[in-house]
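To whoever picks this up:

The parser on our side crashed when reading a file containing two proteins. I've narrowed it down to the boundary between the first structure block and the second sequence. Both blocks are reproduced below exactly, byte for byte. First block:
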Amino acid sequence: MDTEATDLPPVAFSGSRLNWQDLPRHVRSRIAALAGAQVSSETSATSGFTPGFAAVLELGDGHEVFVKAVSAEQNPQAPDLARREIVVAGALPPEVPAPRLLWSHDDGTWVILGFDAVHGQSPEQPWRPADLDRVLVALADLAVARPLTPNGLLPVTDTMADDFRGWRRIACAPDGPRTHSAARFGERGVWVMAHLDQLADWESGWAVAAAGTALVHGDLRADNVMLDTDATWLVDWPLASLGAPWLDLAFMLPSVEMQGGGDADALFWAHPVAAGVEPHALRSVLAALAGHFTLASAQPAPIGVPNLRRFQQAQAVVALDWLRRLPA
């Protein structure tokens, strides 16, 4: 992909969702039993990358439930992510605007989760200022939330330790693959090659910068937000961890700028959670994030998620541009 082209931002959707009738009969029967009523209709989710089944189900008793159902056939990692989301759901305090997990089932092949059905839509693209303001307020509230105890959440320094070594891995790669990877980014790739050792050095400090005890969603983007008339819902929590309270803002802003929401650096420093953040800490985390997106976007597409790599590369472009704008 030519990242210098002025094409539209990639769509955050896997394109491989299952419908109700695609589910095996025993899975449909289990869902109906867990929900306590027969399913009369479905409204499929139209955003997000996780393959499998994701839909609001209307039940014969008039109630609704949002159901996810995944197996390794759709994607080898999907069941473990669903299992992780079950653990995270038990750690979310009531003040966090996340749909409540009602029930779950894991037969070793299919993992099924049933949530309160919440309504609304993902923010329009490009971002409208009023929508972005609502999400930024929700991030300020999330930054002061603390998970319930005891819980099974891990420090972000553990959950992202392998992902946040991108520049160091690229620096150790043979010249051919390294040059080919840089070429995907045009002029930005030239800058990366000239500053690779510095990027790896910045990245190496991310764990110290990111450590903390705040609840971190870890994967916030427009497609993981739902805006109702009077509520802002943060959804899809399998990557949640413990870390610095400003991480979700920093992690989300490359996608916000990519989708027309404004300058990521200006938005970061204007937000309340940025108070007291050292510029070198932001640089380290941003370098790690940019390295992760850069390296991940060069990998083959995961099974059932064909659009993910293009989305990651688009975020890498914005993260690199933000990194280059930071004061020396």
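<<boundary where parser fails>>
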Amino acid sequence: MVPSTGPFEWASTPFTMIATPKHVQNLSDTKTDEYVEAASSMAVFHNLLLRSLNTIYLQAPHVKDGDKKAFVGYAYCWYDAIDAHHTGEEQEFFPWIEEAAGEKGIMDANVEQHKIFEKGIKEYGSYLRSLKGKEKTFSGDHMRSIINSFGPPLHQHLSDEIPSLLALRKYGDKIHLNELWDKQSIGKFTLHSAATRIPFYLCNLDRTFEDGLWKDFPEVPKLAKDFMGNWVARLNGGYWKFGACTMTGVPKELYAKGK
């Protein structure tokens, strides 16, 4: 059961989650093709981005001065995550798909959508960077206004990208979508991602989503997940209290709440 957060509905608003094709098609106990698998994995990751953006939007006006430095750091993790995701798509994932299909331009519509909200996301990152050393001047209302400028078209894009991946099924076995998804450099561990990006993912990955269908997502050894959640996350420990979930993926009450 999702915990109550006063006037808020946990981290499920204002941007709603995206149903995965695997769940929609009731394929939880069925072997599926790689198009359904890859599109579903993409949806789970997109939901992580939306859920974490919700935590920032909902908590921003209620963060106390003593927590603002940590919150700014946490909020910047979202910028780092979305920037890495879309850079990875444009430089690796989409070109690889087009190369495998033998057809240029089939992913152009997705890239064009990136341009619609690019300016707003850059403003988001620039604002947070401008607060370095003066985090107490952070304005939750200003943060919300920036998110309002790009949030709706971003949500539309993250939703639209799922059927666009499913539509690639027409290329049959020419495209090994799961392999292309897995080999993106965004998914490889670096010192930076180990200290910030990975813990940010963990505390916003709801493992109860769709009746627990994604409780083992991603397929990483439990020992590695425990190490990241219990030890590496301590490097920026003040950040993760703002997450939607515990490090084990259990939904939790939002830390900064209104009255």
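After patching the parser it read the second block fine. The CA atoms of residues 65 and 136 lie 6 Å apart. Residues 21-188 form one domain.
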